[in-house]
Automatic annotation (TrEMBL):
UniProt organism field: Piscinibacter terrae
Pfam families: RrnaAD
Enzyme class: transferase
Function description: Specifically dimethylates two adjacent adenosines (A1518 and A1519) in the loop of a conserved hairpin near the 3'-end of 16S rRNA in the 30S particle. May play a critical role in biogenesis of 30S subunits.
Entry-linked InterPro entries: KsgA/Erm, rRNA_Ade_diMease-like_C, rRNA_Ade_Mease_Trfase_CS, rRNA_Ade_methylase_Trfase_N, rRNA_adenine_dimethylase, SAM-dependent_MTases_sf
PANTHER family linked: DIMETHYLADENOSINE TRANSFERASE, DIMETHYLADENOSINE TRANSFERASE-RELATED
Sequence similarity: Belongs to the class I-like SAM-binding methyltransferase superfamily. rRNA adenine N(6)-methyltransferase family. RsmA subfamily.
Entry GO terms, CC: cytosol
Superkingdom per UniProt: Bacteria
Enzyme Commission number, as recorded: 2.1.1.182
Ranges where the Ribosomal RNA adenine methylase transferase N-terminal domain occurs: 19-188
Protein name per the record: Ribosomal RNA small subunit methyltransferase A
């Protein structure tokens, strides 16, 4: 029986064989890799990945799809909302850092990225299909319109690379946006900071993008009795990730 894509789950199934092989080549799964796939759907990526790895843990919210996947002995199926999954526990069960992959639901992709950021110490790398606009923001450099809170909060912890652009016609049904595959590799020795403090600070900085930081972050720094020097005569998008990190460390 054919599965009808469910709009409430943001389901767009990848069908282009050339694109699928390009993604799997970018992932480069090896036998025994502790791979976890988010949203396997109809198995477009699942099948070629498990052919190379031999085993795979899949996280699927759709109960009908999860039931189909359970018929395959090489798959470990976690039927759950990915935002409720404990990736640290999965890594502990695997005895190794995880390799996380998936065609993420575009309607909740940012919450998923931040959920995984909380478990980043247990992750070896991540390869995701996302809306291209989101990938552009993730990988953006300072000074442009794409550079923002998402850029800073991910780039302080990951090396981020767009490895493949994917057109809408590669999916069924086609989404209304272009897509891209992003590679995210956690830095082995990240700076020591309080991520919650960095998050609060960056949220304040980008709360009014068009204003100079004196009106936003400057006031926040005064409230936190920051004794040092920081140039607040700039807009938030002009400040490099390293400066935000250094400021969080100084606080």
């Amino acid at each position: 029986m054919k599965h009808i894509p469910r709009k409430r789950f943001g389901q767009h199934f990848l069908t282009d064989t050339a694109v699928i092989h390009g993604i799997v080549d970018a992932i480069d799964p090896r036998p025994g890799d502790p791979l976890v796939e988010i949203g396997p759907g109809l198995g477009a990526m699942t099948n070629p990945v498990v052919e190379r790895s031999g085993q795979l843990t899949v996280i699927e919210l759709d109960r009908d799809l999860a039931a189909r996947l359970r018929r395959r002995p090489e798959l470990t199926v976690v039927e759950s909302d990915v935002l409720n999954v404990d990736f640290a526990a999965l890594a502990a069960a695997a005895g190794a850092k995880l390799r996380v992959i998936g065609n993420l639901p575009y309607n909740i992709s940012t919450p998923i990225l931040f959920h995984l950021l909380g478990a980043v110490d247990h992750i070896a790398d991540q390869h995701f299909m996302l809306q291209k606009e989101v990938v552009d923001r993730m990988a953006a450099s300072p000074g442009g319109k794409d550079y923002g809170r998402l850029s800073v909060m991910l780039q302080w912890r990951y090396d981020i690379e767009n490895v493949l652009d994917v057109p809408p016609e590669a999916f069924d049904p086609p989404p209304r946006v272009d897509s891209a595959v992003v590679r995210m590799q956690p830095f082995p020795q990240p700076p020591r900071i309080d991520p919650a403090l960095l998050g609060e600070m960056v949220t304040v900085a980008f709360s009014q993008r068009r204003k100079i930081l004196r009106h936003t972050l400057g006031r926040w720094l005064e409230e936190h009795n920051f004794p040092g020097d920081f140039d607040v005569q700039r807009r938030a998008e002009e400040v490099p990730v390293a400066e935000y990190v250094a400021l969080a460390q100084a606080l």
